[in-house]
C-alpha cells in the first residue's frame, strides 16, 4: 500500500514540468504523493478508476491539472468526496494564456466543488501548499513545517 497522502494527476505528460512545482513543494514539506498522467477525455475509464480508488489507498487530497477544456479536476471531484484542487494550465492552443482552463476548472456545478488556484507554475506550487494546509488540520508537525516555510519566504523578501 502506498503512503501517499496527495494524489497528483495531470492530463498530459507535457504538463510534468509545470506540475513539478507541486511535487517539489510537497517534497520540501515532507508530504508523500503519487503522480499519474490521465486524461478526462482520452482515458476516461482509467481516470474514473483512479479517482474512485484514492480514498481506499489512504490519499487525502487530490491535485488535478489540465489545460484547454480542463475537465480533469471536475472528473476527479465527480468520482470522489476527497478535496480536489484544480490547477489550470496554459495549453499550446490556450485562449488568453490559460483563461479557458481557468474558467473550465473554476466553474463547477453546485455540489461538486473544485478549489482552484492560479494558472501555471505558481498555481502548481500553491496547490502543493494548499494540500499541505488541508493535511495540517490533523498533523501539527506539518503545520509547523508550513509555518517555517512561510517564515523563510518572508525572510527572503525582507532581505532583498
Characterise the protein shown here.
By secondary structure, the chain is of the alpha/beta class. The protein has a single domain (6-158), classed as 3-Layer(aba) Sandwich (Rossmann fold). Helix content is 46%, strand content 16%. It contains six helices and five strands, in the order βαβαβαβαβαα. It has helices spanning 16-28, 44-53, 72-79, 99-106, 121-136, 140-158; strands at residues 6-10, 33-37, 61-67, 84-89, 115-116. It has a five-stranded parallel sheet with strand order 2-1-3-4-5, with helices on both faces. Helix 3 (72-79) links the parallel strand 3 (61-67) and strand 4 (84-89). Helix 2 (44-53) crosses helix 3 and helix 5 crosses helix 6. The N and C termini lie far apart (45 Å). The relative contact order is 0.18. The model has no long low-confidence stretch (mean pLDDT 97).
Assess the beta-strand content as a share of residues: 15-25%
Spatial separation of the terminal alpha carbons: 45 Å
Structural class, from secondary structure content?
A: alpha/beta
Strand arrangement in the largest pleated sheet: 2-1-3-4-5
Rg over CA atoms, rounded to whole Å, is 15 Å
Number of helices, where a helix is a run of at least 4 consecutive DSSP H or I residues = 6
What is the β-strand count? 5
SSE order? EHEHEHEHEHH
CATH class: Alpha Beta
Helix content: 40-55%
Judging by the overall fold, what is the CATH architecture?
A: 3-Layer(aba) Sandwich
Query: How many domains in all?
Result: 1
Low-confidence stretches: none
Mean pLDDT equals 97
Strand count, sense and barrel status of the largest sheet are: 5 strands, parallel
Tell me the CATH topology: Rossmann fold
Q: Tell the overall outline.
A: globular
Amino acid at each position: 500500500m502506498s503512503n501517499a497522502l496527495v494524489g497528483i494527476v495531470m492530463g498530459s505528460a507535457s504538463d510534468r514540468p509545470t506540475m513539478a512545482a507541486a511535487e517539489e513543494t510537497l517534497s520540501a514539506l515532507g508530504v508523500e504523493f503519487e503522480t499519474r498522467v490521465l486524461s478526462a477525455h482520452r482515458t476516461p475509464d482509467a481516470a474514473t478508476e483512479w479517482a474512485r480508488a484514492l480514498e481506499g489507498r489512504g490519499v487525502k487530497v487530490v491535485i488535478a491539472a489540465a489545460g484547454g477544456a480542463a475537465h480533469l479536476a471536475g472528473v476527479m471531484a465527480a468520482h470522489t468526496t476527497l478535496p480536489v484542487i484544480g490547477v489550470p494550465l496554459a495549453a499550446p492552443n490556450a485562449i488568453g494564456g490559460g483563461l479557458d482552463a481557468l474558467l473550465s476548472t473554476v466553474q463547477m456545478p453546485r455540489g461538486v466543488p473544485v478549489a482552484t488556484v492560479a494558472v501555471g507554475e505558481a498555481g502548481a506550487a500553491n496547490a502543493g501548499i494548499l494540500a499541505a494546509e488541508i493535511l495540517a488540520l490533523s498533523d501539527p508537525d506539518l503545520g509547523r513545517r508550513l509555518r517555517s516555510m512561510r517564515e523563510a519566504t518572508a525572510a527572503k523578501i525582507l532581505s532583498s
